[in-house]
Amino acid sequence: MMEAQKYVWEGAIPLQIHLHESEITSLPPPSPALILAPRIGYLPLLLPLIKPYFSSTLPPGQDTIWFDYKGLPLKWYIPTGVLFDLLCAQPERPWNLTVHFRGYPSNLLIPCEGEESVKWSFINSLKEADYIINGNCKNVMHMSQSDQVELWHSVMDGMLVCNLEKYIRASSKLKLGTVTTDEADMVGQVKAG
Predict the structure, then answer these.
(1) Which Pfam family, just one, is annotated for this protein (predicted)?
(2) With b meaning 16 or more CB within 10 Å and e meaning fewer, what string describes 145-157?
């Protein structure tokens, strides 16, 4: 079981990130950034790696990072691995994404106010999972603040083995268990109906 968890935890997707052509202010245009992104991570958390890479070519103005894949704005609150699995019928390696720092599509995406937005979206997803599995979200609601912070930092920091151990320690307090086939079918029927 631990070996499977470690395998999933260490999963990563090679990304080739291009700066959108409308935001390039230098010649020649910058080369794409190559990043190995954790499958369990979130695209906005890549900002500290991406912004310095493209900073010399960005136009002046307020930065609000967002990504698209073949023109489709990507929902920042969905883990990178899930986005990849949903959108790449024939997986491409590296996955070619476009990053934007201007022109946030607020008519298509809910605003992301940085790491705090991603953190609270993650915690809310935990509450939803707890509710689906247990019929309530008491396990998440009764987590101590320090356990929530430890769980979030283990996800945010990505693929380090020590963070997997932190994640397992903190997430074990959630008692989410596993979903049976019958329960998964029931959830699928509810979502389809």
Answers:
(1) ATG5_HBR
(2) eebbebbbebbbe
Percentage of residues of the chain with pLDDT beyond 90:
46
CB 66 within 8 A of CB 51: no
- Cα–Cα distance, 95 to 131 (Å, whole number): 33
> Rounded to an integer, what distance in angstroms lies between the CA atom of residue 133 and that of residue 119?
21
Residue 19 CB-density burial (10 A; 0-12 exposed, 13-18 middle, 19+ buried): buried
Sorted by where each starts, the structural domains of the chain and their CATH numbers stand as 2-100 (3.10.20.620), 115-185 (1.10.246)
- Position 3 confidence tier, pLDDT thresholds 50, 70, 90: confident
Q: Which residues contact 159 (CB under 8 A, 6 or more apart)?
A: 9, 10, 12, 38
- Which among 97, 94, 61, 56 is positioned nearest to 76, based on CA atoms? 97
pLDDT over 80 at 192, yes or no:
no
Residue pLDDT, tens place only, 76-114? 999 999 999 999 988 789 999 999 999 999 999 998 988
